[in-house]
Amino acid sequence: MDFQVVVLAGGTSNKLLPLVSKEVPKPLLPVANRPVLSYVLELLELSNLKKIIVVVEGEEEALHVGGWISGAYVDRLNVEVAAVPEDVGTAGAIRAIAHHLTAEDILVVSGDLVSDVPPGAIAAAHRRHDAVVTAMLCPAPVSGSSESGSSGGKDKTKKVGRHDLIGLDPTTQFLLYIATGAELEKDVRIQKSILRAVGQMEIRTDLMDAHLYAFKRSVLLEVLDQKPTFRSLKQDVLPYLVRSQLRSEVLFNGAPQTEENGSEKVISQSNEQMLSQILSNATHPTFHQRYAMGPYCSASGGRTHKCCVYIAESSKYCARLNSIQAYSDINRDVIGEASHLSGYSFSAHNNIIHPSAELGAKTTVGPHCMLGEGSQMSDKCSVKRSVIGRHCRIGANVKIVNSIVMNHVTVGDGCSIQGSVICSNVQLQERVVLKDCQVGAGFVVTAGSEYKGEVLAKK
Length: 459
Known about the structure:
By secondary structure, the chain is an alpha/beta fold. InterPro entries: eIF2B_gamma, LbH_EIF2B3/5, NTP_transferase_dom, Nucleotide-diphossugar_trans.
């Protein structure tokens, strides 16, 4: 497919401190001992989408990412790494590289997406509908409570996080409404003129926007040019395209674009069930029925455009590494229930122990665990549902549960690590107890210390 692919990889996201740094920016954060960006790049490669621009925030961060890509994907992918200023937002990042975009259609993918949904399927749906944008939607993930790191897989009280409010036509092909983020803290108001325009709309609360979009390049760049204040593709550009699609619908139906008070239908977020709004305005065919008849023009003489969706099957895996909780969950999933994503072969004990790793006497590494290259564990250690990186030195009588330990970490005798993330080159002295903590790179935790729910990092 002659799609250009833009991977928005981010940089040193504040949400992921102290895990990220200029040396280890977000795209290089290890998930099952592989940079998270590798999951997106290999997914694109499987769909034969090999012409890729990876956008990284920050010059130094881009150099680190570019260095890794040139080593890992030489002769496999045609990847250009572009540095953009920090904190420009996803829309600003596209603006900054607009001169690189030449294809008719652009696939924009978040670099923190870990999924097995083929991007080629979204690209194909986009072409089939001749849409201006096609957004991939996934079933909203079930996330653990804030203390899920320590409570172990089975005991977690899981609940569906509130993600997006999405309006779809009855065929679930067209995106008619989207509200995200802070908008969902209050009741959501939808203009009756919009509801009249679409004929039928189903409001869904069980789907999330996966940050994978196919755009018609000319339309995307025109919007970014005309709306210089737009910062976010999800919160600014996508809703704008959806609204402008519906404005042409409203004109087509002869309804005014604005109405007096009382023109809004209120949907309360307190109703957790999926909501359906079927209108009795049967004098006009519904939105999808008119599109089934072929393209048409609105009353203002302008051609309407289509905003479409691709809904991933519930059996597919789809998660974004956009918080520390998500980082822990995805690591656990990739060596657990979504192990097919890891790219590794699992042992008969359902774990991954590198052939060069060394285990002491009476040391056990349980199922859904990973022990990296060159790491050494002394006697009487126990590892459960955890990832341990490369070249770690772990003393005797150490317990590691539901945790991620990155590369070159030293753990003294008698330590207990539960529900925590330990970054590279950390030193834990003897008898340290950590529960639900994050320890930044190079930090030294002194002997006998106990911490719960703390962030430990160099100033």
